[in-house]
Amino acid sequence: MSLSLIIPVYNEESQIETTIRKLILFQKKFQQLEIIFINDFSTDETKNKINKLIRRKKFIKFYDNKKKGLGSAIQVGILKSKKNYICIFMADLSDDFKDLKKYYLLMKTNKYDAILGSRFLKGSKISNYPITKLILNRIFNNFVRIIFFSRYNDFTNAFKIYKRKSLLELLPMISENFNVFLEIPLKIISRNYSYLIIPINWNNRKHGKSKFKIKELGSMYIFTLLYCFIEKILLKKSLKKVI
Known about the structure:
Shape: globular
Number of strands: 9
Strand content: 15-25%
Number of helices: 8
Structural class: alpha/beta
Radius of gyration: 17 Å
Strand order of the largest sheet: 3-2-1-4-7-5-8
CATH architecture: Alpha-Beta Complex
CATH topology: Spore Coat Polysaccharide Biosynthesis Protein SpsA, Chain A
Number of domains: 1
């Protein structure tokens, strides 16, 4: 399994031990899996716990973020990765290991640049999604889908898989927080990379607190959306000039 799993962490001391133990069990089935934790300036015992749990585990790498913010953490993970494919996986175990395996097999046997999972397709299963967050999610994602003329309907979901080469071509990212998960698929779609959309599952965290703050992140999402929309228009104009 030539796959790098990027896992950003921030104050996950109550969750991280369970996450690492499950990842170690998963890696036993897929020997070539590389796991990369990026610590985004945690202020609790997350860093110490990770260092203790990953001793002598050569397939697990651990780095500190250089510039505070989830967007920066993701970029550090991309640059540190060594495998052919990259998947972003959340430390709260909201993502499904069965979907991770499915992602990899689809990437390995096809020539896609990305597999974009959606939690809102026939065949998807969602558990304990907060109702207010769910309503806002559907309003925003459907708005993005309409203005980008896209079939995809879950842009803000973090859990997707990409060719490493393709992700490197998207750098640098302009997003500093959760909006990086909007920026990446929008760039994939606008720049005409090949991708497949599939249903995936999602389970709300059982331990710790979500770091997603709707009030704080709203303006960031709008900024990223406008940036990617303008980029899409400029790309179209440049293509017309070439033709």
